[in-house]
Amino acid sequence: MHNLGVNEKEEGRMDRALKHYIIATKDGCIESLEGIKRLYSDGYATKDDYAKALRSYQAYLDEIKSDQRDEAAAADDGNRYYESSSL
Hints:
Elements: H1 2-10, H2 14-26, H3 30-41, H4 47-64, H5 67-75
């Protein structure tokens, strides 16, 4: 879905790019969240769109959270199941 969003953005169809990015963000794609952030800063997405995407991404992280993943992430940054970002 992220790649479809990228293609739509390249074709100038920002509304469709936003839809694809939102779907991908719900599945944990940090790149799509960044894409929505760029669309927002360029005026193609609303603050509400971006806030909704942030909530969706956080819900995804909450859903996959587990003690085993936390232990692996603490042992080695290469095992992180989340991305640190300047979001």
